[in-house]
Structure formats: structure tokens, C-alpha cells
Amino acid sequence: MDNIQLGPNYFCLRLLCPEIAPAYQPGQFVMLRAWAGYDPLLPRPFAIHQTWQRQDQEQQGIDILYQVVGRGTRLMAGLKPGDQIYLVGPLGKGFIIPEGLQSAFLVGGGMGIAPLLALAHKIIRDSRPSPKLSLLLGGKGKEDLLRVKEFIELKVSVHLATEDGSVGHKGLVTEMLPTIIPRQRPQVIYASGPEAMLKKIAHEASYYEIPCQVSLERLMACGIGACLSCVTKTRLAQPPEGLSPDGVSPTPFQYQRVCLDGPVFEAQEVIWNNGAE
Ligand code: FES
Asked: What is the pTM of this model?
């Protein structure tokens, strides 16, 4: 185990776990409890950032990118090599890469960057000829934009936005979409970050008729579909007869578990804010 500090509040936890790394698909997550005892009581969900392998020692594992925001992550920041942690994964459904993908936008807000680097690696590895990828990344300030160098090394075209204007576009990452989407017309948009950002991206993608996959964040107690703490409303793909949307009746919906049926969903399936505006 290694716990690498990336910035004032950001860390990368490197874990040796040969059982999880080979089974991982970008977008999947782990449930992690990095502290002894029951305070905090529950493990926390973390997107797997990337997998790693040391050829010489045949060791492999995963990286977890995290920001110190509360008691659980403060305790994580104190982890040292040799400490024991509780870890279950890989969990959930990850991003789907369509056959022959030639261009995609990866849109991240803050810690939403976590699953996108592994996704970029996988798209580049699996697609021939080389696909054209663009990263649109937003954060409060320059220090909140993580892993930019790694995307540039992958030859991904990078567009940055910061709310304080310290680098890139001054404002929200979503404000860049109306200019960049019509210019580049990506085949797919992948997005990960706060729900308000995902909702806006889903709206833009739908306007330009571009398929969009979003990774939802929810509080999770179990991570395996048992407790229903993470449910979200999604549209019924085939509404039962008499329940078809008619512009008057409410949209027929179902509850899905973000931990088991997601966290990645097709954007047009999601009923944002669980239907509350
Ligand atoms: Fe328990 Fe999803 S976290 S059902």
C-alpha cells in the first residue's frame, strides 16, 4: 500500500489487490473502510481510478483517487504501508465502449476525473484506428484539476475550466459544451461528476442527439444491492400499456440501484433530481 499526496487535499491510495485489478472495467467502484472500529460505521464507495501491474514481481492492484472532505477520508489520509483495510469490489456496471468507437468526449467535474483516465486508456487500447478523444475538465481552481498531464501524454485533447479563472475557461465546464460539441461532434459523451453537471451534459447531448453515459454518485451503505440506500429514478424503457408518456401523465419510471444497476447509466434513462426540479 502507498498513499501518495497529490495536492493539499488530494491523495492517491495505491493498493495491492490481485483479485480486483484483473476483473475491473472503467466506471466500476469499490466499497472501502480504511479505519478500525465503527466510526464512521459504514464503508464508502470510491471509483477505481486505474489498475497497475509490476511486471517483474507479478504484483497488481488498483489506485483510488480521493479528496479529504470528512472524517472517513481524513482517516484514509493517515494510512501507511502495512495498515489493513476492508475492501470489496469491483462493483457495479462500468462504461460501455461501442465497437469501432472513433471519437468521444470525456467530461469530468472535480473528483469526477477518477474513472476517466482508465476509460481513456481502454478506449485507446481497444479502438483501431486511433480514436480522437477530448477531455473537458472543470474544477473550482487550478489545484482541483487532477491528472491533466497523464491525459496530455495519451494525446487526448484537453479543455480546462475553473470557477476562479486560474486556468482555462473561467466558469463551469458545461459552459464549453455548446461551442465544442458542434465543432467536434463526438460519437459518444462520457461524463462523471456532480449531478447538476451531469444533468446539463445530458441535456446538451440530447439536443445534439449524441449518446451519453453518466456515472452517478450516491450515498451507499452496502454497495451490493441489498439496502436500497442508493436508488434513483429512471425511465421505463418499455412502459406497460396505458402508461405511455402523453405529455400530461407523469413519465413512467422505475427505481434502480446505483450500486448494482449503475453507477453508469445512459443519460436519457435518468430522471434528474429524482423528478424534483
Ligand atoms: Fe445498498 Fe445500493 S448501496 S442497495
From this structure: 0.93
